[in-house]
Amino acid sequence: MTMMGRLIVVDGVEGGGKTTLLEFIRTRLATAGYSVLTTREPGGTTLGEEIRSLLLAHRQDGMTLSAETLLVFAARAEHLAKVIRPALSAGQWVLCDRFTDATYAYQGGGRGLSLDKIAVLEHWVQEGLQPDLTLLFDLPVTVGLERAGRRGAMDRFEREGENFLERVRAAYLERARQQPDRYRIVDANGSLEAVKSQVDALLNRWLEQLHAG
Ligand code: T5A
Questions:
Q1: What is the pLDDT of residues 9-47, one digit of tens each?
Q2: Domain assignment present for 77
Q3: Is the CB of 159 under 6 A from ligand 1?
Q4: Whose Cα sits closest to atom 43 in ligand 1?
Q5: What CATH code is carried by the domain that includes residue 103?
Q6: Is 72 in the pocket of ligand 1 (CB under 6 A)?
Q7: Other CB atoms closer than 10 Å to residue 5's CB: what's the count?
Q8: What would the pLDDT profile of 68-126 be if each residue is shown by its tens digit?
Q9: Does 196 sit in the ligand 1 pocket, CB within 6 Å?
Q10: Cα 12 → chain centroid
């Protein structure tokens, strides 16, 4: 029987550098001997990427919170069925740029949707599947926004501004506090080199623990 792969997620407020570090993490895991598929949310499938465009577009200002949350989970359902579960079943590791923690943080913490409602959708769509490891890139919101702003036009979530993102950040940190086994917090408020070396050390320790069983 093939051993199930592992699901590793990078998540956090805007501008933390998680997307920049995705290839670094993939290479680190590949060096450790794992076949790694990288993907992202919202997105990762043809329909999921179309849903992503709807979610991030400025013209969607005014979308109801229910519609926004259901779209996020619709994309996630596709992603799990067509990409994540088949890869894990084949023994591949999946490295995903954002996952359900982002829904708890943005739609829950940021927009104020009840966490119970998110949990209902999570149980429906994920049927108990959870990431094995979530690297939470944490940094002050102002620093993250400044970095994201340098990258170009802001998406619908970045345009919500500082107070919104402060609530998002607090929600991420609260989840990390509640589930310390799954989370590792990366201090993303440093140079790219400093962030890389932290991530490298965290991954080494996590892989050692995994092998120790
Ligand atoms: N969303 C998502 C929800 O609301 N609910 C959900 O359930 C999900 C899954 C898109 C949006 O969707 C929302 C949350 C998001 O707002 P996304 O595609 O992950 O999600 O967001 P992006 O806008 O693409 O990425 P981020 O803004 O989150 O940025 P990253 O990935 O954290 O940062 P990155 O790597 O793109 O870096 C940003 C810039 O900073 C520089 C980089 O070069 C880049 O220019 N940078 C640094 N500069 C100096 N020092 C460092 N240490 C740096 N690290 C990066």
A1: 999 999 999 999 999 999 999 999 999 999 999 999 999
A2: yes
A3: no
A4: 20
A5: 3.40.50.300
A6: yes
A7: 21
A8: 999 999 999 999 999 999 999 999 999 999 999 999 999 999 999 999 999 999 999 99
A9: no
A10: 7
Percent of the chain surpassing pLDDT 90: 88
Q: How many domains does the chain have?
A: 1
Residue with the nearest Cα to atom 40 of ligand 1?
A: 147
The residue behind tokens 């989840």 is 175
Pair 10, 135: CB distance under 8 Å = yes
Q: State if residue 108 touches ligand 1 by the CB under 6 angstroms criterion.
A: no
Task: With beta carbons less than 8 A apart as the criterion, state whether 154 and 179 touch.
Answer: no
* Residue the block writes with tokens 């959708």: 121
Does residue 93 sit within a domain? yes
144-183 residue pLDDT tens: 999 988 877 778 888 888 999 999 999 999 999 999 999 9
2 assigned to some structural domain? no
Ligand 1, residues 20, 95, 159, 168: which to mutate, most atoms within 8 A of Cβ?
A: 20
Whether 1 is covered by a domain: the verdict is no
The domain in which residue 155 lies consists of 7-212
Q: Does the annotation place 14 within a ligand binding site?
A: yes
How close is the Cα of 124 to the center of ligand 1, in Å?
A: 27
- Helix/strand/coil percentages in the chain, nearest 5: 60, 15, 25
